[in-house]
Amino acid sequence: MKYTQLGRTGLEVSRLVLGTMNFGPQTNEADSHAIMDAALDAGVNFFDTANVYGWGENKGRTEEILGTWFAQGGERRDKVVLATKVYGNMAAEGDAWPNHHKLSALNIRRAVDASLKRLQTDHIDLYQFHHIDRSTPVEEIWQAIDVLIQQGKILYAGSSNFAGWKIAQTNETARRLGSYGLVSEQCLYNLAERRAEMEVIPAAQEYGLGVIPWSPLHGGLLGGVIRKEREGGAARSASGRSADAPANTTVRAQIQAYEDLLDKHGLEPGEVGLAWLLTRPGVTGPISGPRTREQLDSAVRAVDLELSDEVLASLDEIFPGPGPSPEAFAW
């Protein structure tokens, strides 16, 4: 495994992030534990989750699965850089209650204690804001975070799904208050969705945030969806964005060109999608959310995959980025 520092911190993390969103909803506890054991054996030390994962009536279930895995011992918790998130309402559907979601100081305090209990640990290494909160002052958020850091419940704070200007506002407020500020941004970023290159990633680099792309294969669209369709697996595999490939002619043409290019070079689409992100400036590591051990093994192989200049240039032709701001929308 290869490692890098998370943004401007001294924290050393693997260049592949283990996403756990499928643990519970799609992967049972025993298989989830086996995947985490295999990830640790492969050198993956950066695990990402969120308090709402498990979804529906089972919110929090994913954190519980990580907690029972940590409880097995064997230095599991000591070896893992643990990241989770706060924002979503943890109440049952239709049973929302005030102050049990978003980023008020009250909810942050409640949410972190609940996550620690589910995770069976005494601290969270990276506590991420799952979404911006338009109704809570940034000063209040940092006050709550600084208290948690002083209490030893969290070490670092990160953002997720923040606009570039929000990253700037949040870290400038932290600077004014004497807080350390955000150290990471988790954003939607992949070959087929490159808008983050306009402002989010430049802002993250300017403020020393590590970029952690989620949905690196764009919901399976970059994982060989047309090949699977041809082999008769589309009905089983296509979901979310990958289901759009057969219907959208523009998207389908891009994906077909993508798969044809990789067939020519003997490369696997899913591995290339991850490997491409590892070539991008500012990227710490993409989040791979495997449902099976085989998917994890494929993601691990991507870390060592070296893409030639010819392949990189061809990928840019198929999926051109928007370019930097303001040139992308001005002159």
Q: What do you see in this structure?
A:
The strands form two sheets. An eight-stranded parallel β-sheet has the order 9-8-7-6-5-4-3-10. The chain has a two-stranded antiparallel ribbon with strand order 1-2. It has helices at 29-41, 61-70, 76-79, 105-119, 138-151, 164-177, 200-206, 225-230, 234-237, 249-265, 269-278, 293-303, 309-318; strands at residues 3-5, 12-14, 17-19, 46-48, 81-86, 124-129, 154-160, 182-188, 210-214, 287-288. α1 (29-41) links the parallel β3 (17-19) and β4 (46-48). The mean pLDDT is 95. It starts with a strand and ends in a 13-residue tail after the last helix. The protein has 331 residues and is α/β, with parallel strands linked by helices. α1 (29-41) runs parallel beside α12 (293-303), α4 runs parallel beside α5 and α11 (269-278) crosses α12 (293-303). It has 13 helices and ten strands. The longest helix is centred in the C-terminal third of the chain and has 17 residues, at 249-265.
